Amino acid sequence: MSDDDDDGFHVRTIEELHQIRDQALIESAKELEKYDLPSMCIDDMMALFEHACMEQYDTYVDDDLKKYNINYNIMIAVNDELKARGVQARLSLLRFFDHPNLQVRVKAATLTYRVAPEAARRCLDDIAKAGFPDQSLAAGMTLRAIDNGTSMLT
Amino acid sequence: MTAKLRSAAVKIALRYLVKAGMVTADILAPEVMILAGIAIEVADAAYPYVKAYFDPPQTLEELQQAANSPESGYEIHHIVEQATASPDGAEDAQIDSPENLVRIPTAKHWDLNRWYERENEEFGGLSPRDYCKGKSWEERQRVGLEGLREIGVLTP
Predict the structure, then answer these.
(1) A-interface mutation test, from B72, B106, B114, most A Cβ less than 10 A away
(2) pLDDT one-digit tens code per residue, A42-101
(3) pTM of the model
(4) pLDDT digits (tens, 9 = 90+) for B88-131
(5) Contact A39, A24 (CB under 8 A)
(6) Does A111 reach chain B within 8 Å, measured CB to CB?
(7) Domain ends where: B29, B53, B77?
(8) Which 28-57 residues of chain A touch chain B by CB within 8 A?
(9) Domain count, chain A
(10) Distances (CA, A) of A107 to A49, A122, B148, B156
(11) What is the CATH number of the domain that holds A19?
């Protein structure tokens, strides 16, 4: 058995990842055209963020990377708008720290880390220690990157 | 059963079992599959994968040694990923050297691969695989070993 074993996972090359990234960029841009983020209220933005994360959560089973990345772009667009509005707007994501969906929780904590580090660390640490497929690895690697100074979170 | 169906069954079972707070001792009991609500045929195919997933962490030497003994439910993993090797082939020998190969539970291999491929705000929006491309061997190895520790395969 090897990395390329067709046992539920295909290891994509960098070129394949770029193709999927480019397709996702086009599709997420189309999706985002439906929204006027600068004029959206916080609650509507939170609903969009939550939905994007839940769509990402579902890609665990079928490994639909394009769907994951489309929703990544939507999530980041919402986060960029929150950043543009300031710290209070960014703190709106705190409401998701006890969300029943792990992906919503881990992304909210990650993107809030720079403005609410203590609460975000507690949230990420709890998820990392729980040993869940997917989200525990993401949470743990985020904390490691922060601690060893390689994190690019802003 | 197709590989896709088996993979989906394993993943669904793992989400259920971790959420239910299962530990290794529970997983060793075959009736746990009934709890997971999985049909017998699917459970038989998924069982080695699910059981391996709950292995306790091992030392790097143990994982490297195990790479010489293929077993159902496990795969050989490259600590420094093949996909990040220099395109001129200069690293091929190092990539396939025994020091870079470990045997890990298949479902954890899927988890790691998935993490490497997804766009990630930690890496400025790049996927970790994209980020690692062109980085030094030591940097890629650091990321690889941290990943193994974080998924509970390698002892801290």
Answers:
(1) B114
(2) 999 999 999 999 999 999 988 999 999 999 999 999 999 999 999 999 999 999 999 999
(3) 0.87
(4) 888 989 999 999 999 999 999 999 999 999 999 999 999 999 99
(5) no
(6) yes
(7) B53
(8) none
(9) 1
(10) 9, 13, 21, 25
(11) 1.25.40.70
